[in-house]
Amino acid sequence: MLIVTSVAAMQRLAAKLKVQQVRVGFVPTMGYLHAGHLSLVQRARQQIGEKGQVVVSIFVNPTQFAPHEDLSKYPRDLARDKKLCRAAGVDILFIPKDAAIYPPDFSTYIVEERLSRGMEGESRPTHFRGVTTVVGKLFNLVRPDVAVFGAKDFQQGTVIQAMVRDLNFPLKIVIAPIMREADGLAMSSRNKYLSAIQREQATVLSRAIQVAKATLKNGPISSKKLEAQIRKMVSQQSEARLDYVRIFDPQTLEPVSEVKRGTHLALAVFFGKTRLIDNGRL
Ligand code: AMP
């Protein structure tokens, strides 16, 4: 596995792979890797084949964190991440420095103005500007044929697909399913922050999705009713504070008034300072 830490070296390598017509599959991450990330690596490999090169980036992107959020405390373990990437068959691990991605005179951002407004965008107003900007930059540096993102960040996937279409990035976006712990909790680097009791109660996110699916089996239901049911479920957890629950069309991300099959549900819940998200198709 080749470890690349310089932006210029990554650009030279990407140019060389283009000339050699080697297909590149790309998985951008913020590190502290878990089985969810590694499933994206596998998916990238499937997409580009054994002769292709799988690139993983690890970059804790400061522009997608608000000043009060957990940037400085975001979990990091590069030694472990390198081992996991090697074992997963990653070809190139790109670990750029903050100052190389955002030099002091940096002043150009990518802003998606429709899909990024609600949900995560409402709770974290500058978040998606940071995500689209860094992902756009990483696409320019790595020049992948395919990039794989997780359905765990459903809105992010939709926003990136729109960015790629709107700005003509020449690559395919693949969205891979959510990997979960045995009890249903979606894997996340942030799960590490949870206390024992919070960890137990954190299954309320995936349970809410299951309850919504089960409720819908009895026939269509109003979004208001279902949202109220989920609000109640979350409020019964002593450590949980609901940020939002939203029922929406998976293409437009617009809220819908009636829940039907294929409607999407997303929720965000705080456990202390830790904010967890989950979503599912109903
Ligand atoms: P992060 O390191 O949290 O920025 O995530 C990097 C990529 O991994 C994103 O595309 C996430 O959606 C994806 N990801 C994170 N957690 C999971 C999970 N539990 N299952 C599948 N993909 C995930």
List the helices and strands and how they pair.
Elements: E1 2-4, H1 7-19, E2 24-29, H2 35-48, E3 53-58, H3 78-87, E4 92-94, H4 98-101, H5 120-123, H6 127-142, E5 146-150, H7 154-166, E6 172-176, H8 196-201, H9 204-217, E7 221-222, H10 223-235, E8 240-248, E9 258-259, E10 264-271, E11 274-281
Parallel strand pairs: 1-4, 2-3, 2-5, 3-4, 5-6
Antiparallel strand pairs: 7-9, 8-10, 10-11
The chain binds adenosine monophosphate.
Average pLDDT confidence is: 97
Number of strands: 11
CATH class category label of the largest domain: Alpha Beta
The assembly state of the depicted protein chains is single chain
User: Which residues sit in consecutive blocks of at least 5 with pLDDT less than 50?
Assistant: none
CATH superfamily of the largest domain, please? HUPs
Please tell me the total number of domains: 2
Number of helices: 10
Q: State the strand order across the main sheet.
A: 1-4-3-2-5-6
CATH architecture of the largest domain: 3-Layer(aba) Sandwich
The run of helices and strands is EHEHEHEHHHEHEHHEHEEEE
Helix proportion range:
25-40%
Largest sheet: 6 strands, parallel
Radius of gyration: 19 Å
- Give the DSSP E fraction (strand runs of 2 or more residues): 15-25%
Give the distinct bound molecules.
adenosine monophosphate
